[in-house]
Amino acid sequence: MAIMSFIFVFFFFSSLQPILSLYEDQVGLMDWHQQYIGKVKQAVFHTHKTGRKRVVASTEQNIIATLDLRSGEIFWRHVLGPNDVVDGIDIALGKYVITLSSGGSILRAWNLPDGQMVWESSLHGPKHSKSLLLTTNLIIEKDNSLIVFSNGRLNAVSCIDGEVLWKKDFEEESLEVQQVIQPPGSDFIYVVGFAASSQFETYKINAKNGELLKHESTAFSGRFSGEVSLVSSETVAALDSTGSILLTISFHNGKISSQQTPVSNLLEDSPGLAVIIHSSVTGIFAIKTDAATIFIRVIGEGKLEVVEKTNHETVVSDALTISEGQQAFALVQHAGSNIHLTVKPAHDWDSNLLKESIKMDQQRGFVHKVFINNYIRTDRSHGFRALIVMEDHSLLLLQQGAIVWSREDGLASIIDVTTSELPVEKAGVSVAKVELNLFEWLKGHVLKLKGTLMLATPEDIAAIQYMRLKSSEKSKMTRDHNGFRKLLIALTRAGKLFALHTGDGRIVWSHLLQSLHKSESCRQPIGLNLHQWQVPHHHALDENPSVLVVGRCGPSSDALGVLSLVDSYTGKEFSSLRLVHSVAQVIPLPYTDSTEQRLHLLIDADKHAHLYPKTPEAIDIFQSEFSNVYWYSVDDDNGIIKGYALKTKCSGNVADEFCFDSRELWSIVLPSESEKIITTATRKLNEAVHTQAKLIADQDVMYKYISSNLLFVATVAPKASGEIGSVTPEESWLVVYLIDTVTGRVLHRMTHHGSQGPVQAVLSENWVVYHYFNLRAHRYEMSVIEIYDQSRADNKDVWKLVVGNHNLTSPVSSYSRAEVITKSQSYFFTHSLKAIAVTLTVKGITSKQLLIGTIGDQVLALDKRFLDPRRSVNPTQAEREEGIIPLTDSLPIIPQSYITHSLRVEGLQSIITVAAKLESTTLVFAHGLDLFFTHYAPSRTYDSLTEDFSYALLLITIVALVAAIFVTWILSQRKELQDRWR
Amino acid sequence: MEKGKGIMGSGRRWAVHFSDNSTAPSSRDIPDPPGFARASVDQDDSTVSRQKKDAESNWKSQKAWEVAQAPFKNLLMMGFMMWMAGNTVHLFSIGITFSALWQPISALQGVGKVFEPYKDNKVDLLGPKLLFIALNLGGLALGVWKLNTLGLLPTHASDWVSSLPPAQEVEYSGGGIPL
Question: Do the Cβ atoms of A693 and B175 come within 8 Å?
């Protein structure tokens, strides 16, 4: 009995999850990690003191970061979260980074060298308003202070501890404060704004105690539009709402005087609607019209003069005080493939402090923002460096006519990712650049051998580690046997396509898509998603693979669509199409033509289906499968799921043989008062399933219900669609459905009472795993549903199976109404989730693991066996042998199974799994603000030798054995001979 | 003979010739001693050899039966080992099962050789051979049965469907929440 129980325990432990962690020296062999900050919104330089020069930046992704000004590396970085939008940043006292965020209600100070938070204060006020941050060198009660206007309240805050020194409310309902100005050297503050859009108001406030000194207002006949530009500390320029009249308003000593100038007076030709460009240069402001940017100088009392009118794309920086009373600003203009950086003094337009021309990569697009900083050269003249933000969100530092460094921060906002194979290694293709010579190869193996035999010195070990990390094998530009080397093709929000090498994460090519570029016909282009258009493998190997980029002109769903085809080896956009219809859905069909181009069906907002590519061959293929193609749409606002089949050609006025009408087949209308759709999940198109049978204990068999037309839908009570805790458990429920999207049949429906979203779900093979919050238990839960085909279950006659007399592999139709049974089980889970995915292998034989993006921005692997509805508290002997784990109420989190090990993928958005050619291995790519890539083997690499396997040792062992055989053979021969002579 | 040589070397005094002339009728000049019946000796000789032969064939058939029954002990031993090995698949149980399968097979192959020494015109080897074969077949059956209990025989439906690919679907449907 003791032996039996010992065997039992042994089997139990050996069947438990194998530990899949890494050793310390394996970090970086298979994985890479890149950190980004996103599109920079505001940047402040810190170059005064000796020591590391740095720049502090806030970005549209709500990040505060300091970068090394020499290399562009991140010193520290804080992600403030999706609702904590940064309104302004500044540096105070030379050691604190001050940030104003969350609509002006949170003010924080961070320590500049290390990024630790020093203090935080929350500022509230009577109403919502614009938020303005002003650092002053005012000293109130011995403290340096900040002036913050937010939420309709003016606050003076101490720099030292964040204490509010005084506050003043501006409660007037219609008042829109535009500027808070402190004239240099004075101890009062002007608060300037519009009331009821037509009245100009100035408040003069004592900066020491917040006392109102003077309030003036004057009415204006028209209405003001948005912005004002500060011309001097007591003059502002504004435009009226028609964009045709310029106003200069001065409020010297509280006395308001204004001057109106029609824009047409300044320009000969009618410029159309103009807008003011926000800048802070003394004496000059700029307006922008459709065609041109116009710089206007204010001379004396409201007199205006056009100093320059440019037709190029022009960007202006804020003013920079370079010496006592002298200001400079930078202008960046495009000219062909070059950009011109000009730095001018504010008082004199015609002279230049700096004029440089820099060659710029066309793929970065236009300059969007420029920030300048000065330094003193050795000859005591002023030098300037400029930080520019480009259209593709990249960040570049320009100095002395050259690009010092650049950061590809567009990769912080990836919309969609797909993969592409690399070129096949051919005799003609030269890869000699990265090939090692024989001597180096030998040297490497000798070093490795030394390491194995523990003869290596610390230097040798370092050299071995370096060699492993920089192995040229993994960064080659050709296909490998294991399928580890691929291109990750990523579409970013800026409309740029990047190809990253999976070996080391470098950018192979990047391309700013012309089709997603702003133009006359397409004002607000946005990228939607990426699809694999052509994956040549059998008979079209000469063709390069290509990807399809789908976009649309504008955010509304009926905006016209844009298609673009990009060669994935070179990044060339070889075809781009402006569609005449909108794009509501893109459906890749499981058919390809003779050149391996995949057929795609684009559904427009009017429910017409358009077939691409528009070739006769495609239509022939499609016609033959016409009656078997269906589509469905999930209307999550109204809670309706509808299924359609295709009818004949479009009935529209244009004869288009690639356009088809849809016919509604079925619809599922969920009661809007009790259910609201929050999540859907489907199976991945490219998922391979090895078998339809699941073997269970005692040689029994269950048949999986495997259908690619399975849709998982989760709905919650409309009340409970808010945040967790906003409803009581009684009025909250979660309902999940499994729907066949061909027939609209609901295969399974289940209600979780007292639960609420957000729901994250993943559907694979015949199971779905979803994550939600259980309000009664106050914990997160994960549930699994497995669905089995009961109508196949009577295929149990061995003889019939032996002779193949069964219909298990004959094609099935959804209309045959298979009888299904489902099994489900729920478990507690500690983490809340950001994303969930499942490992994907090439043939689907390897066991599956769930990849969970935790709230801590890490990726955790969880064996699917923990989410098996057949788990029970006391599994039988046979079930244990099968590998069923005894039931526990919560899922274990094994620290070693974090596949991101010590790294974090900040702002994790999604996890993408791609099958390698090696059956055991999945390639995992997680992206958010950061990118992370690794290889992952759910059941360990059972089909290959490990990377650190010593071939040299094996070779030497074999040689030694062969030598030993020869020596002993000769010796035995000799001995035998002697014996015979005796 | 050597003794004779030694004697001759030292000088011969007398010699007795033991050459038997009794069978040669020409040299039957010396009368037989009284009470000696030549014929009866002849007769006696043949009965002795017959008896001898009978005993030998008896002994042979007895031995053949013994040999034929030998696998039975083996069978019992095998059964015991199998019981010891248990029903889980591991090295020990697989080793035992395969030896249990191999032994009867090799024995059956060498069935002629096993009974070679006992081959005789008078001995009927069919019975022992049949017993031997039957016992070995029993052993084989035991091995197969063991193999089955270990789950190594494809006798269940699950063994035939475990790698069946999923059935192809006729319809295809795509879509989702509009972009």
Answer: no
Across A37-43, average pLDDT: 92
Q: CA angle at residue A297 from A291 to A301, to 5 degrees?
A: 135
For A510, list phi and psi in degrees, rounded to 5: -140, 145
B158:A695 CB<8 A:
yes
The reported pLDDT for the residue numbered A626 is 87
B179 contact A CB<8A: yes
Q: Which amino acid is at B39?
A: A
Would you state the structure tokens that stand for residue A26, as one six-digit string?
Answer: 């394996």
Question: How far apart, in whole angstroms, are the C-alpha atoms of residue A142 and residue A162?
Answer: 14
Q: Is the pLDDT of residue B2 over 50?
A: no
Which pair of tokens denotes residue B2? 């050597």
Q: What are A54-94's pLDDT values in tens digits?
A: 899 999 989 999 999 888 899 999 998 888 888 889 888 88
Q: Does B157 touch chain A (CB under 8 A)?
A: yes
Do B157 and A801 count as a contact with CB atoms less than 8 A apart?
Answer: yes
pLDDT for A432 equals 44
Query: What's the alpha-carbon Rg for chain A, to the nearest Å?
Result: 34
Asked if A619 has any chain B CB less than 8 Å from its own CB, the reply is: no
Between B67 and A641, whose confidence is greater?
A: A641
Distance separating the N- and C-terminal Cα atoms of chain B: 121
Angstroms from B145 CA to nearest CA on chain A: 16
Quickly state the pLDDT bin for A8 (edges 50, 70, 90). Answer: very low
The number of beta carbons lying within 10 Å of the beta carbon of residue A57 is: 28
B177 and A636 within 8 Å at the Cβ level: the answer is yes
| Nearest CB neighbour to A630, from listed B158, B163, B172 | B172
All residues of chain B having their beta carbon less than 8 Å from the beta carbon of residue A812 are: 167-170
CB contact (8 A) between residue A692 and residue B165: yes
Which residue does chain A place closest to B153, by CA atoms? A699
The pTM score is: 0.84
SS3 annotation, A256-292 = CEEEEEEHHHHCCCCCCCCEEECCCCCCEEEEECCCC
Cα A161 to Cα A473: distance, rounded to the nearest angstrom: 55
Edge-to-edge strand order for the sheet containing A257-262? Answer: A224-232, A235-240, A245-250, A257-262
Amino acid at A46: H
CA-to-CA distance for A343 and A326, rounded, in angstroms?
A: 13
How far is it between the farthest Cα atoms of chain A?
134
Which one of B165, B168, B176 has the shortest CB-CB distance to A691?
Answer: B165
- Spell out the alpha helix ranges (H) of A551-643: 616-624
Question: Which residue has better confidence, A267 or A416?
Answer: A416
CA end-to-end span of chain A, whole Å?
A: 62
Write phi, then psi, for A410 (nearest 5 degrees): -60, -25
Range scoring the smallest mean pLDDT among A307-316, A350-359, A372-381, A626-635: A307-316
Q: Which residue has the higher pLDDT, A173 or A259?
A: A259
Percent of chain A with pLDDT over 90: 31
Q: What angle do CA A314, A318, A320 make, to 5 degrees?
A: 125
Using a CB-CB cut-off of 8 Å, the residues of chain A touching B166 are: 689, 691-692, 704, 706
Q: What is the secondary structure of B38-95 as a DSSP string? A: HHHHHHHHHHHHHHHHHHHHHHHHHHHHHHHHHHHHHHHHHHHHHHHH-SS-SHHHHH
Nearest CA in chain A to B160: A801
A603 — contact with chain B (CB < 8 Å)?
yes
Report the C-alpha gap between B137 and B132 in whole angstroms: 8
A372 is written with which tokens?
């300048």
Nearest to A812 among B160, B161, B169 (CB): B169
Per-residue confidence (pLDDT) for residue A430, from 0 to 100 = 47
Q: Give the mean pLDDT of A397-403.
A: 89
Q: Do B179 and A583 touch (CB under 8 A)?
A: yes
Report whether pLDDT(A916) > 50. yes
Q: Select from B88, B156, B168 the Cβ nearest to the Cβ of A798.
A: B156
Mean pLDDT rounded to a whole number for chain B: 78
